[in-house]
Design a protein that fits this description.
By secondary structure, the protein is an alpha/beta fold. The protein is 40% helix and 14% strand. The chain folds into two domains: 131 residues, Aspartate Aminotransferase, domain 1, CATH 3.90.1150.10; 235 residues, Aspartate Aminotransferase, domain 2, CATH 3.40.640. The chain contains 14 helices and 14 strands. The strands form four sheets. The protein has a seven-stranded mixed β-sheet with strand order 2-8-7-6-5-3-4, with helices on both faces. The N and C termini lie far apart (57 Å).
Length: 395
């Protein structure tokens, strides 16, 4: 009898963001005063009408299987949202609801990618993207960006990355981890390359409402040709503070949605019935005050960081992260220990300053760190004070 793990799972790297969050919560449970700036989770509560809809669903006995791609009410509500807010015409048959946007993305890769296909992936990228691509049998083709391009790719960079094997461009705007947002003109320029070479674009738009002083549009709205090639990924975790409810969705070409539905029917089947009812109501009650509060926090953190030694940060235009550059720190030391990587820097901060953040290696950006400002104002001030004190002791 042969024992052992599959090659597939042996090659998967654990999520660094979730690993750090787990370690941080363990330290907090042991009594350590850790300020957790690592997690991508709003510190707001689920909108009360959405929470009540979930409670009512339980009371009404809405706890059975639903249709695999989601209940009719929710898919119709998502179609209305896409029409009214994004100018996109989709029928409910063009939409599939899954157990979070992460699940939606995984299903999409499994539906459209064959072994050896190439997925163009701008870096910095969300930590799960390359692992999902590899799990589907495809190959991530990374385009590196940095502060000089605002952490965004250009049409010329995209053109150079295209090969006969290119199947998908994965675009995330607003971006996790950088907060970068592509302008309408930038998306139109990228769309010309996509239309020329005829491949899919998966557009992860889960932070779409969290933008600050800039217009955010979906790349699918650029043209009808672009809409036919686009798979629009979104969900309820970020803008509706519903991370634990696990509801995400994709809108796109009906043939792809049908294939994803078949795939989902053999894995998870339907998304949670109760959560779907909550999601219907959530679409009616987005709280714009969240955007104002996140903007104020961003401005505060950005000001504090750019007043500190050895660290710089460009202004993010969306999401709830800043992505400082720590290259000047690398090679220096703290209390006799050499800071040879962002990972070492993050470890020393956790040990000596009681701050948890995410090193950039997992995002494909070894000179950066990610700081989430989705925490209270008091915690942000304490964290910035601790970070500044730590940096002043670096030699």
């Amino acid at each position: 009898m042969a024992f052992g793990l599959s090659d597939r799972v042996k090659e998967i790297a654990p999520s660094p963001t979730l690993s750090i969050d787990t370690k941080t919560k363990e330290l907090v449970s042991q009594g350590y005063d850790i300020i957790n700036l690592s997690v991508g989770e709003p510190d707001f509560g689920t909108p009360e009408p959405a929470a009540n809809a979930g409670i009512e669903a339980i009371k009404a006995g809405f706890t059975k299987y639903t249709a695999v791609p989601g209940i009719v009410d929710l898919r119709k509500a998502i179609a209305r949202k896409l029409k009214e807010e994004n100018g996109l015409d989709y029928e409910m048959e063009d939409i599939i609801v899954s157990n979070g946007a992460k699940h939606s993305l995984y299903n999409a890769f499994m539906a459209v990618c064959n072994p050896g296909d190439e997925v163009i992936l701008p870096a910095p990228y969300w930590v799960s993207y390359p692992e999902m691509i590899r799990l589907s049998g495809a190959v991530p083709v990374v385009i590196e960006t940095d502060e000089s391009t605002g952490f965004k790719i250009t049409p010329e960079m995209l053109e150079r990355a295209v090969t006969p094997k290119t199947k998908v461009l994965l675009l995330n705007s607003p971006s996790n981890p950088t907060g970068a947002v592509y302008s309408p003109d930038e998306l139109k320029a990228l769309a010309k390359v996509i239309e020329k070479h005829e491949f899919y674009v998966m557009s992860d738009e889960i932070y779409e409402k969290l933008v600050y002083g800039i217009e955010q549009i979906s790349i699918a709205s650029v043209s009808e040709a672009m809409k036919q090639r686009a798979l629009i990924v979104n969900g309820f975790s970020k803008t509706f503070a519903m991370t634990g409810w696990r509801v995400g969705y994709i809108a796109g070409d009906r043939a792809v949605i049908k294939a994803m539905t078949s795939f989902q029917s053999h894995t998870t089947a339907n998304p949670t019935s109760i959560s779907q009812k909550a999601a219907v109501k959530a679409l009616e009650c987005f709280d714009s005050e969240m955007v104002d509060r996140f903007r104020n926090r961003r401005d505060y953190v950005l000001q504090r960081i750019n007043e500190m030694p050895l660290i710089t940060c460009i202004e993010p235009q969306g999401a709830f992260y800043v992505f400082p550059n720590v290259a000047e720190i690398l090679g220096k030391s703290f209390k006799g220990q050499t800071i040879d990587s962002a990972n070492t820097f993050a470890g020393l901060l956790l040990e000596h300053a009681n701050i948890a953040l995410v090193p950039g290696e997992g995002f494909g950006a070894p000179n950066n760190i990610r700081i989430s400002y989705a925490v209270s104002d008091d915690h942000l001030k304490k964290a910035m004070d601790r970070l500044e004190q730590f940096l002043r002791e670096v030699e």
